[in-house]
Amino acid sequence: MESGSQIIPTLALNLLTDAEAHYKQDNKFSPEILQSLHAVFGNVLIRAAEMLENASFLRYQTHNKKRQLIKVVNRSEQYTLFTNINFCHCQAFKYQVLQTRNVITCKHVLAAKLAHICGQMKVELVTDNQLADLLNYQYEQHGNLQT
Ligand SMILES: [Zn+2]
Q1: Which GO CC annotations does the UniProt entry carry (predicted)?
Q2: How far is CA 100 from the centre of its chain?
């Protein structure tokens, strides 16, 4: 089913919820949690962990939190993600997640989840119009990239 690939599998999602609960308690990931995360996400976890050290994560949200957008900036690269939707415009997502299905998600999506758990996600409140502008800008960027 084509749309199935857009949703993070339940097992992975439960694991992230688990990881979040543990992190809140101990302020770090236990070796067991890291092992389970690695079992589910494979090397994407390693790359996501590297990103946590180098990248910046920003969540734009409207005041009622109904609409949200996450921006991940890693050196010169920038990706826009959506909360609760497993999708990214990067090449890895296109080939490894959607085509070969080797992995559940890409490092950007996973890193954003981890950044949220570790409190590394900055939040900026925006209006509905500002959020719409950000979205439009994003589509224009990627429209150009794909041609
Ligand atoms: Zn990505």
Answers
A1: Shu complex
A2: 20
